[in-house]
């Protein structure tokens, strides 16, 4: 039986969740891409080929690749899961009771694969057969979406993140991404690969309004040895960090959380766009953001459920202490200040480590990739001219389900 456990950022990667959805990207247009958190539209076929090359690299390295839409369709085959998903994604308060009831009745007759496709790729009013289009008021624009597409499901890292022996179903910062969490909640709760597993839920498995407590997986690095590194960012709030930290300590799955403060800027929306771990003692960093002036705190369990907090002199010292290392090596983004800015924007620092010293990333970042190679890091590269338009690289596009400790 597979053990869904992620013990580090750099231990042998054994299983990973990916997602690519043609339908969601076919529905990404110049008029809606910014609302859906993309800077531009993608060439759907080229992006699909790039993603396929990414998956192939992982498989060639012995990683078991699972696909979100396949797991979602298999989950929908279970009546309880299907009912919960349809009730949740097409609730009476989203559509109105009359329309919600008729649309769910229609969807229930479709193959599970088609339902999964609509749940991730979106559903337009004009796709609903006329006998089932029964709103209380006939005032809908048939070209609009009854369910908006979820192109950001591509970035499986954000919606849920496995941290040691447990998972956080993350309360997402942006409203257009919050439906993603429900798809993952159903998979982890009912799919046979997960339902009988013994793991912790840190956040998101209960009906709670998390309000200001938002967190996204791109800000969470499981650096190993009971330590977790979290970015205080545009998408991850202090309240979210506190909620996750308390749950990690309560379950005993972590003993130390190191928090790095980031600018509230789309260019570095998550910690893993400016800092990733390449080997046990080697990190990649964008120096304009991650440097000696970056504010950093360490959280540890206190007495009576309190959190002890200590502001650190610098992030290097905090990481070394958390990992019991005497030193760490930091490889900065390649090029001069202009080249560094360009390559960071194209996810040069957003590397997915397969095992210590072997990483995957976009081939366009030649200056940074050369620096990695010079430092003894093996870079397995693939094209990302289209995928990169969503501002996410190999780490963003992957949710490890099983990874070794260090």
Automatic annotation (TrEMBL):
It comes from Shewanella halifaxensis (strain HAW-EB4). Its EC number is 3.5.3.6. Belongs to the arginine deiminase family. It comes from the Bacteria. Pathway: Amino-acid degradation; L-arginine degradation via ADI pathway; carbamoyl phosphate from L-arginine: step 1/2. One of its GO terms (biological process) is L-arginine deiminase pathway. GO terms for molecular function: arginine deiminase activity. It is found in: Cytoplasm. The active site is at residue 396. InterPro entries: Arg_deiminase. This is Arginine deiminase. The lineage of its organism: Bacteria, Pseudomonadati, Pseudomonadota, Gammaproteobacteria, Alteromonadales. One of its GO terms (cellular component) is cytoplasm. It is an enzyme of class 3 (hydrolase).
